[in-house]
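quick one before i forget lol
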Amino acid sequence: MKKRVESAIRLILENIGEGWFIILEEPDTEKFVQFAYDEDTGLIFDLPFQALDEDELVRARQVLGEVGVGDEVASIFDSPDGEAVGEQRSFNSMVGSDVDQAVDLVHRVFTYVYGFDDKTRFNVTISC
């Protein structure tokens, strides 16, 4: 799995654009990890709480906490430059262009949080 994740991350970093959003998803369960891309900071790891069941959330806090990834609260807006209408909690980490860190985070989530094995296939979607 790590080799496939690494290939996907490298492909993403070679084809990035400002404001892009990248999702690595296991298609049968629709379990995913996502990244945003910003030209100034690079890749930003993001795992929203609503993507996790209670057990997965406990495991995510443990395995992501081991590498210093905590949870953050962000406002949800009704439109760009609009008013805040709610909040979303997620695990976030600035990855920049560190392929090894990105691979480690995805591997931790897919393996330890979701329980997938090394043969698990996943889709990569890049949206701009």
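fyi Strands lie at 21-26, 31-38, 42-48, 71-77, 84-96, 123-127.
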